[in-house]
């Protein structure tokens, strides 16, 4: 949703110069916008701010039908997109330049959706018997929103949507029927994804923009520095903690990587970490930010809508897997630092934790307001609005964070800018949802995977994982989840009867997200490598190893949903917490090849196996895992290897 560009405390600010905007423009298509100056810049600025105000009006005051709300939202998104995004990257360098054809396409595309708004009741009475003119309008509208998606998000999601549309035609559906479904019903472009985007997601994006203006990202880095800065390999641990906290309001793995990575990656390199490892730490942790409650890149609210489960249930279920994920990265960083003999930052460069909380802890109030109101039963829209109000109020507590009228407009403008890419992706995801509903292709895909897996649960999950990673490459978090939930979650529910709906949706959500660090299309890893000067592919491979928990945990909570706190007793919960943390310790040391000293291969393989057994909730697996890792610990700690021993913490 936004990226932190602020420099952190003391020595963390003494970093090499990083051109954040250039890196974002290279790896985050949403940041590759046109440049304006003078009067045109003001026109664009106030149009975007007005769009944000319109969103507040639409969600808090209007009583319009859903079709009108969603179609008008998409119409404005199209117009804003053609003002901001050029057809090619090179065109973005020209100042105050918008080609005539972009103006025409933008106006025509917007007009198609506002035609639907103006004629909604007439078209609704026609049902599937729309006129030839209606069909042409709908077809143009679909093509234009697809072009918006190409410019802002990229081609991968269009290829997937295009394949589904071709499938609809190949099964005998007419052009009129397909256009009617995708343009004029709530099962297409203006379907559930845009419905959630225009109500919940856009408000949380605006909230993220206001939080950015309060410098909360800088506060998170300082807070993480005060917690872990002095520890062995401190800067890498700071990156993990800061990215986890920033993930509470950031909706982009790439933006999160570049924002905090521009500060943490140079410091990690100076501390002694390999440049590829430093970039991988930031990429893995920033990607994990998308699974961090309470907001989870806004996917939590989509999940609540698509599973028909309370938001509080989803956020609570996501807590423990997220803790395990970040614990795995934290431990991997720790063992790497011990192996290299790296120390933490000097004491004088570390801010005092309690003084930091007393002086700037008030910046957390908007997030606490959000969590409390959502848990208390407020709608996501009203909870987000109250959190925005809280952000405005707390920003006035200190002069350096106080929002001036200009900063207030900046936040509204930034919120609108960051909405465009998400909305475009959600509109195209709606096409996929519409074709699945129209043709029933989801069941056919499930039958195909069932045949390939031979009815073996674990093999079916592996095939589903591969599908999720491929479909999730280069797709923003929210649209990513919509695609996964529409195509692959029903497959799990059919292949493995009895799987809780939440477990299936969390499984596909996790594997859709890790596509950002899984080569070959690992955008977060590429962005981190651009900052570190490392090798993108090697960075992606290391990031995948660091985020290994994200490749293990989803299998566990499908096969044993206790990890998601589904029907879990207090005793079971305590057992899961203890054994799973020991399991992550074993996996991290085994993959890193170091515990107390260097681990030979015959210790590393059993350590990883024991860790997986411990993460799987169950008495037998826990006992086996504890015995194996216990023996390995005895071997590691019983004797000293002076050559390989690291500097003590």
TrEMBL record:
Residues in the signal sequence: none
Native source species: Thermoclostridium caenicola
Keyword field contains Protein transport: no
Transmembrane segments: 43-62, 68-85, 97-118, 153-170, 190-211, 309-333, 353-374, 419-443, 449-471, 478-496, 502-526, 546-567, 573-595, 607-638
Pfam families: DctM
Keywords assigned: Membrane, Transmembrane, Transmembrane helix
Domain TRAP C4-dicarboxylate transport system permease DctM subunit: 141-568
Nucleotide-binding recorded as keyword: no
Name of the protein in its database record: TRAP transporter, 4TM/12TM fusion protein
């Amino acid at each position: 949703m936004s990226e932190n560009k602020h420099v952190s405390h003391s020595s963390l600010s003494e970093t090499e110069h990083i051109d954040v905007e250039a890196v974002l423009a290279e790896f985050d298509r949403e940041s590759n916008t046109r440049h304006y100056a003078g009067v045109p810049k003001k026109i664009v600025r106030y149009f975007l701010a007005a769009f944000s105000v319109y969103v507040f009006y639409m969600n808090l005051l209007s009583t319009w039908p859903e079709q009108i709300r969603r179609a008008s939202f998409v119409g404005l998104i199209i117009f804003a997109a053609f003002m901001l995004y050029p057809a090619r990257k090179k065109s973005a360098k020209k100042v105050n330049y918008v080609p005539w054809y972009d103006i025409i396409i933008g106006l025509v595309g917007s007009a198609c959706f506002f035609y639907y708004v103006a004629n909604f009741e007439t078209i609704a009475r026609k049902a599937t018997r729309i006129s030839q003119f209606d069909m042409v309008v709908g077809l143009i509208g679909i093509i234009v929103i697809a072009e918006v998606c190409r410019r802002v998000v990229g081609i991968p999601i269009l290829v997937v949507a295009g394949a589904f549309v071709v499938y609809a035609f190949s099964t005998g559906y007419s052009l009129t029927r397909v256009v009617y479904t995708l343009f004029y019903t709530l099962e297409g472009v203006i379907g559930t994804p845009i419905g959630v985007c225009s109500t919940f997601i856009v408000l949380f994006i605006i909230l993220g923009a206001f939080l950015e203006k309060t410098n909360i990202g800088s506060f998170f880095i300082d807070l993480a520095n005060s917690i872990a800065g002095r520890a062995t390999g401190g800067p890498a641990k700071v990156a993990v903690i800061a990215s986890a906290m920033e993930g509470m309001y950031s909706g982009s793995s790439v933006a999160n990587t570049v924002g905090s990575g521009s500060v943490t990656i140079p410091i990690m390199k100076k501390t002694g970490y390999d440049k590829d490892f430093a970039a991988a730490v930031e990429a893995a942790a920033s990607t994990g930010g998308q699974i961090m409650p309470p907001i989870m890149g806004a996917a939590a609210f989509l999940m609540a809508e698509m599973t028909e489960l309370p938001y509080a249930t989803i956020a609570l279920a996501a807590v423990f897997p997220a803790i395990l994920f970040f614990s795995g990265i934290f431990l991997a960083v720790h063992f790497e630092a011990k192996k290299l003999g790296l120390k933490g930052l000097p004491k004088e460069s570390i801010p005092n934790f309690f003084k930091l909380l007393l002086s700037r802890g008030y910046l957390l109030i908007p997030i606490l307001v959000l969590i409390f109101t959502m848990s208390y039963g407020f709608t996501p829209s009203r909870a987000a609005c109250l959190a925005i109000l809280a952000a405005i109020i707390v920003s006035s507590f200190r002069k350096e964070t106080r929002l001036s009228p200009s900063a207030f407009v900046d936040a509204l403008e930034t919120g609108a800018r960051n909405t465009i890419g998400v909305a475009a992706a959600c509109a195209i995801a709606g096409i996929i949802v519409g074709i699945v509903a129209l043709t029933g292709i989801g069941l056919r895909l499930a039958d195909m995977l069932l045949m390939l897996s031979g009815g073996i649960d674990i093999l079916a999950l592996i095939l589903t994982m591969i599908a999720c990673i491929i479909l999730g490459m280069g797709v923003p978090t929210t649209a990513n989840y919509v695609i996964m939930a529409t195509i692959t979650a029903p497959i799990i529910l059919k292949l493995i009867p009895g799987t809780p709906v939440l477990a299936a949706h969390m499984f596909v959500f996790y594997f859709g997200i890790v596509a950002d660090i899984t080569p070959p299309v690992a955008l977060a890893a590429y962005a981190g490598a651009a900052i570190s000067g490392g090798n993108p592919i090697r960075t992606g491979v290391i990031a995948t190893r660091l985020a290994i928990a994200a490749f293990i945990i989803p299998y566990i909570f499908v096969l044993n949903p206790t990890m998601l706190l589904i029907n879990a007793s207090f005793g079971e919960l305590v057992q899961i917490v203890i054994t799973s943390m020991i399991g992550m310790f074993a996996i991290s040391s085994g993959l890193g090849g170091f515990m107390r000293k260097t681990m030979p291969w015959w210790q590393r393989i059993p350590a990883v196996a024991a860790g997986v057994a411990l993460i799987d909730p169950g008495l037998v697996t826990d006992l086996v895992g504890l015995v194996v890792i216990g023996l390995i610990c005895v071997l590691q700690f019983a004797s000293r290897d002076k050559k390989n021993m690291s500097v003590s913490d």
